[in-house]
Every structure is written in structure tokens, then in C-alpha cells.
């Protein structure tokens, strides 16, 4: 087992898992995808079979295509799933994926558009991390200083590496860099009291009063990831904002930021409001028709037509 991919989902994010898996397959990934989930499984998983060999209670496996399997692993935690990433990856490496040489986590609102070989080459350079749209944060930015003060009081020293601020939606880890996941897990656990527990995240409106540009954990899990990079003594290999299509350049994996996800898109309505479809919206609907399908052929065709019309409208009318 050379490389595994993992993701976490609940509720409607299962639609994103379909496009992620399909995109991985089309870019040459062959192997096992481990999908941790909370709640019930959607209809498109109906052919998944119970798989006790994974030694994970309640697990099941869907044979998607030749040399591609998706394992569904029920998650028992009250953490917000965005705060569960390092623990999930460690449990995989300690259990059903203990023979893996590389482990890659993708949020389920990402699609992969470059050859899988590039991702394996990337983790041979160090911990694979992509720059966030809110980057950079300079060495003495008040938020970085706040991390150093907070964790310094807990006996954890942070050392500035680069001004790049990482996006939490993807991480690629080589077996030799596995220690980073333990550091990240510890940093998240130490952060927990400051945000009211790891069942909260930046997406919870109840935290709005404590969020701000200079607060240490306004972006919770993402701030913990970036603080972990400073706490860890290994090599990090950064790709810039173009990696997630936040700016022009060599895009590897467009990431659908924001509240409206591609599967919720009303393209013509948004186009008339001056918001044309994004690259990731177009790609999502391109990748949902196989080898796994979560929408009917009619819905997929209709959405692709609507997106094309919305893009045409966007050439002449868009919000400044």
C-alpha cells in the first residue's frame, strides 16, 4: 500500500465526496480512499458491503472501479469534523492503513485536476501544504505573536518558518513525517479551552464574538494547523494560492470556499446577481458522472447547460 487518501463528511457533503473520488480516479489514483462519516450513508453507497477486515466497527467498502475502493468508517466523536483531521489520520495509520507510505487528506469540497504522480512527488519534498487565500501572515503578525504567547504558556515553543498561511483543506504526509500529525493533534487539544472545545469551529456563528483579525484562533482548526507548522521541526513543502485555484497559475485541486457549495449552486440565479460560476463549480459538475454517480444524468446535463449559460452571462455582467 503506497498511498491512501482520506476525507471526512457528514450531511450534504457526501455529494462532494463523489466528485473528489471521481476526480482522483481520472487523475490516475489507484488504491484505497478512507471516508470517515457521521450520520447516515447516502443512497449512492447502497452497494457497499460490510468489511470486518478493516477492524473498524461498522465499516463498509464500495468497490468503485478496478483498483479503487472507498471504505466508509463511522466516526464517534463530538468534535467538529474539521478539528478531527489529525486524529483521524493517526487512527488510519495505526489501524486499517498501517502499511501506507503516504497519507493524503482532502476536504470533500475539493476536486483534483492534475496527475496523481505530482502529489506523490510533492510529499517526497516534505509535508505537502497549500497556501490559503488569507495568506500571508508576516513573522511578527499579531496573530502569530498570539500563538507564540498562548502555546508558550503551555510549554510549547513555536519557531517562525515562512509567511505563508496554510489552508486546512489538504495535507499530504509521508511516513517519515508522520510525527507532524501527533504535534497537530496536541496543538488542537491545547487550543480547545480557548475556543470552548473542539466541537466548535470557525463555521459556528456562536464564535463570531471571539473572532477577529488578531485573535489567535479566529479560524480554529486552520490556525492550529499553522501553529503546528511552527511547533514541528520538519520540512514543509508549500505550494502557493494557485494550487487551490485561489489565483491564476498551476492549479492542482480547486477548493470550493464559501457557504454555497457546487452541489447547491443555482448558476443562473447567481449569474443574474453578478456572480458567474467559479472554476470549481464547473469542475464539480464535470466530475459527478462516473465512476460514482450521485445525480441523475438529467440533473447533471441540466446543470452543465445552466453553468455554460451562466458563464456566458458573466462575460457581460458581473459584480465589481
Q: What this model shows, in words?
A:
- The protein is α/β, with parallel strands linked by helices and 320 residues long.
- The protein folds into 2 domains: 3-244, Spore Coat Polysaccharide Biosynthesis Protein SpsA, Chain A, CATH 3.90.550.10; 262-316, no CATH class.
- 33% of the residues lie in helices and 15% in strands.
- It is built from 9 helices and 9 strands.
- The chain has helices at 14-26, 85-94, 116-123, 142-152, 179-195, 221-231, 267-272, 279-287, 297-316; strands spanning 3-10, 31-38, 49-50, 60-65, 68-74, 102-106, 127-130, 170-174, 236-239.
- The strands form 2 sheets. It has a 7-stranded mixed beta sheet, with helices on both faces.
- Helix 1 packs across helix 8 (279-287), helix 2 (85-94) runs antiparallel to helix 5 (179-195) and helix 5 crosses helix 6 (221-231).
- It is globular.
- The model is unreliable at 203-209 (pLDDT under 50).
Order of strands across the main sheet: 3-4-5-2-1-6-8
Q: What is the CATH superfamily label of the largest domain?
A: Spore Coat Polysaccharide Biosynthesis Protein SpsA, Chain A
Supply the number of helical segments.
9
Poorly predicted regions are 203-209
Count the beta strands. Answer: 9
Q: For the record, what CATH class of the largest domain applies? A: Alpha Beta
Give me the strand/helix succession. EHEEEEHEHEHEHHEHHH
How large is the radius of gyration? Answer: 20 Å
Q: Largest sheet, if any?
A: 7 strands, mixed
Measured as a percent range, the helix fraction is 25-40%
Amino acid at each position: 500500500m503506497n498511498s491512501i487518501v482520506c476525507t471526512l463528511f457528514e450531511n450534504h457533503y457526501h455529494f462532494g465526496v463523489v466528485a473528489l473520488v471521481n476526480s482522483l480516479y481520472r487523475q490516475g489514483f489507484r488504491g484505497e480512499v478512507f471516508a470517515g462519516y457521521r450520520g447516515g450513508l447516502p443512497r449512492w453507497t447502497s452497494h457497499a458491503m460490510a468489511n470486518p477486515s478493516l477492524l473498524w466497527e461498522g465499516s463498509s467498502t464500495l468497490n468503485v472501479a478496478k483498483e479503487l475502493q472507498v471504505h466508509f468508517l463511522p466516526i464517534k466523536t463530538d468534535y467538529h469534523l474539521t478539528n478531527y483531521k489529525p486524529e483521524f489520520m493517526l487512527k488510519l495509520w495505526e489501524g486499517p492503513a498501517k502499511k501506507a507510505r503516504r497519507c493524503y487528506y482532502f476536504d470533500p469540497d475539493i476536486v483534483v485536476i492534475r496527475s496523481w504522480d505530482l502529489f506523490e512527488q510533492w510529499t517526497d519534498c516534505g509535508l505537502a501544504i497549500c497556501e490559503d487565500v488569507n495568506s500571508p501572515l508576516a513573522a511578527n503578525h499579531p496573530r502569530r505573536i498570539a500563538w507564540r504567547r498562548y502555546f508558550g504558556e503551555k510549554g510549547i515553543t513555536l519557531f517562525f518558518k515562512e509567511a505563508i498561511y496554510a489552508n486546512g483543506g489538504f495535507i499530504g504526509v509521508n511516513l517519515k513525517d508522520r510525527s507532524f500529525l501527533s504535534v497537530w493533534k496536541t496543538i488542537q487539544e491545547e487550543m480547545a479551552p480557548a475556543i470552548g472545545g473542539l466541537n466548535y469551529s470557525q463555521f459556528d456563528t456562536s464564535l463570531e464574538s471571539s473572532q477577529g483579525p488578531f485573535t489567535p484562533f479566529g479560524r480554529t482548526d486552520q490556525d492550529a494547523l499553522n501553529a503546528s507548522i511552527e511547533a514541528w521541526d520538519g520540512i514543509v513543502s508549500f505550494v502557493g494560492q494557485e494550487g487551490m485555484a485561489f489565483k491564476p497559475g498551476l492549479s492542482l485541486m480547486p477548493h470550493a470556499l464559501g457557504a454555497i457549495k457546487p452541489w447547491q449552486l443555482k448558476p443562473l440565479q447567481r449569474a443574474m446577481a453578478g456572480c458567474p460560476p467559479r472554476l470549481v463549480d464547473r469542475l464539480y459538475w464535470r466530475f459527478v458522472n462516473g465512476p460514482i454517480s450521485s445525480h441523475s444524468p438529467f440533473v447533471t446535463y441540466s446543470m452543465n447547460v445552466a453553468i455554460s449559460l451562466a458563464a456566458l452571462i458573466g462575460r457581460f455582467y458581473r459584480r465589481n
